[in-house]
Every structure is written in structure tokens, then in C-alpha cells.
Amino acid sequence: MSIDVGGAVLPEGGTVRMGLIGLGSMGRHHARVIRAVEGMELVAVADPFGDKHGVAGGLEVLPDVGALVAAGIDAAMVAVPTYLHEEVALALAEAGVHAMVEKPIAATAESGRRVADAFASAGLVGAVGYVERCNPALLEMRRRIGAGELGAVYQITTSRQGPFPARIADVGVVKDLATHDIDLTAWLAQSTYERVAGEVTHRSGREHEDMVVATGRLANGIIVSHTVNWLSPVKVRETVVTGEKGAFIANTLTGDLTFVANGDVTSEWDRARAFRGVSEGDSTRYALSRREPLLVEQENFRDALWGRPSEAVSMSEGVNTLRVVEAVLTSAATGQTITL
Fold first, then answer.
1. What is the layout of strands, in order, in the sheet containing 313-314?
2. Could you tell me if residue 30 is inside a domain?
3. What GO molecular function annotation could you give as one example from this UniProt entry (predicted)?
4. Among the listed residues 219, 237, 220, the one whose alpha carbon sits nearest the alpha carbon of residue 228
5. Statement to judge: residues 62 and 165 lie in one domain
6. Do 167 and 278 belong to one domain?
7. Which strand (E) or helix (H) includes residue 219?
8. Are 94 and 118 in contact (CB under 8 A)?
9. Buried (b) or exposed (e) across 15-26, using 16+ Cβ within 10 A?
């Protein structure tokens, strides 16, 4: 359980009156999903720039977080641009409203810590929306790693590449996309980052970086690497975990999970036989139950509000991820490996 506030903060099984602030590219999907979650009711929406995607339905589009709170909500989904996360989240905490904030928790780790502390001090449920943890392929991979099916884990690599997303204006590729990979890597490995090194480049003429390659080591000895950009014509979303028994390969675009076992077939080719590594064994593609990750994410938040066991991502985890993100950017700027 990622979040524990000492029991239910709202009546279990009762309806959670939800508010949503930010009706942009992510907010429109949250509006749809909240309406589909059993036990949640979307009762108020807010966006100072209006409702360009037409998701409010019969609800009035409120101008700001103050009006959202005044609508009498129990909890809120924060889907405003990153630079506004702290301001909106602190207003919700001050008003006693539980919240899930889209990733990253804030624009900086220092800002994120203020948000996390405010929710903890008020005894409120505070979560961060790292939706990749709800991807069916990664959920099954984590379960199987935990069951020992991979043996000792040696390495985790991620690749997250594709065309530029027009929705992004206020952060670079590290805070927008690499943050997913840093979070899910620590979650899969159940370990924090020990050190990281990063290289970035600017190719699109924007203020922020659009490509990054980062490597590092976790506190438990697992080595990691992340290749992330939004300048590739080919969309790739892949996580590979290599261990003593083989490798798990998760395609998070399709939700597919494959296991490639270490082989035990003896080669007759002299050069291959002399190699003292592993060979490719049988491949297994698992049949998985596929549910929309964003729906699972909102159910996790609801369960945390009801005091049930929940895999919602805590705000303290969100701050830790942002610390690693900032270390990658510092490494890229200084040419130094950063120890956390």
C-alpha cells in the first residue's frame, strides 16, 4: 500500500464528490474516467481558459480552485500545467480537500515537498498521477518479479520515444516523459536511485530539452538506463528487466508482456560454444486482462479515500522521483554523475 493515512477518510462505499481542475488534454480524459468509476461522482469542474474539449456536460465551468472548493467537493483531480501544481494543490490542502495531482507533483522538488508536507500535516490523502504503474503489462511484470520468476534482477532499461506532443509548453522531455520511467523503475525494483548521469540535447528550437539519455544505479545494485525523446517518428514504449533467469519485456503501448528465458541448448558452433554467457531460450507472451490504466489509477485513489489497500502513488514518492529528475538535468548541465 503506497498511501496510509490511518484508515478511511471518507465513508467506505459512499459516493466521493469529485472536482476536476484543468480541462485540457489530460483533464478531458480524467473527466470521462471519473464519471465511469464506481463510487465517484464528478460534481464540479474548473478551468480559467474554458472547456475547449466540451467535457463539462451539464456542469458549470468554474473559474478557479476557490470556486471548485466552494462547490462542496470531497476530493479533486489536479490536471493544470505543471507550473501551477503547487499553487492549486496548496489551496486544496488549506481547504481540507483530498487531491491527486498529475505527474510530476510540482515544477521542482522543493515545491513538491511543500505540497507533500501540506497534505501530510492536514491528514489528507495526497496522490500523484503516475499512470504507467497501472499499465497491465507493468503490473503483471511487477507481480512476477515479486514472485521470484526472474530471480535476481540485474538491469532495467526503458525506451520512451515518439513525435512531439503539442500539449506540452512548460517543461522539457525529462520532467514530462522521463519522470514516468524513473518512477516505474524505482517501483519495479522496489529501490531508490543511488546515482545518475544524463545527457540532453535541444533540437526543436524550444527552451527546454527534447532528448535525454540517462544511466544510473539503484541503491540495491540494479543498473538502469533510460532513452527518452519526443523527436522520433517511431513511437516506442518499452521496459526491459533482465535478471538471472531471463528477461521480461513490456510493451506499454499495447499492454503486452513477454518473457524470454535463458536458454540451455548447447551450440555446435565453436565460437558460440566458447562464450560463457547465456543463450536465447523459449519466449512466452502472456495473456493479460487489460483495463484502462487511467481508470485503474482513479480506482486506486478512491480506495485510498475509503481506507482500502491502495496502490495510489504517494506524494512523498512523487517528490523522490522529482529529485532524481532534477539530478539528471544537473548531470547534463555539469557533465558530472550526481549522487543522491
1. 61-62, 40-46, 16-21, 75-78, 98-102, 126-129, 313-314
2. yes
3. nucleotide binding
4. 237
5. no
6. yes
7. none
8. yes
9. ebbbbbbbbbeb
| Cell output for 4 | 496510509
> Could you list the pLDDT tens digit for every one of the 340 residues in the chain?
456 554 568 999 999 999 999 999 999 999 999 999 999 999 999 999 999 999 999 999 999 999 999 999 999 999 999 999 999 999 999 999 999 999 999 999 999 999 999 999 999 999 999 999 999 999 999 999 999 999 999 999 999 999 987 766 678 999 999 999 999 999 999 999 999 999 999 998 888 899 999 999 999 999 999 999 999 999 999 999 999 999 999 999 999 999 999 987 555 555 555 555 778 888 999 999 899 999 999 999 999 999 999 999 999 999 999 999 999 999 999 999 999 9
Domain ranges, residue 226: 136-254+256-289
User: Using alpha carbons only, what angle is made at residue 69 by residues 133 and 93, rounded to the nearest 5 degrees?
Assistant: 55
Q: Cell triple for residue 306?
A: 475509503
33 & 175 share domain? no
CATH of the domain at 203: 3.30.360.10
Which residue has 515537498 as its cell numbers? 113
Q: For the sheet with 279-285, list strands across it.
A: 279-285, 256-263, 246-251, 236-243, 153-161, 223-229, 211-218, 193-201, 338-339
Domain contains 64: yes
| Chain length of the chain | 340
Rg (CA), the chain: 21
**Closest by alpha carbon to 250, among 335, 102, 173, 141?**
141
Are 24 and 40 in the same domain?
yes
| Residue 335 forms part of a structural domain | no
CATH code at 47? 3.40.50.720
CA 251 from chain center: how many Å?
15
Block residue for cell numbers 510493451: 251
* CA–CA dist 224, 21 (Å, integer): 35
Q: Same domain for 146 and 176?
A: yes
Query: Global pTM?
Result: 0.92
Q: What cell numbers appear for 251 in the block?
A: 510493451
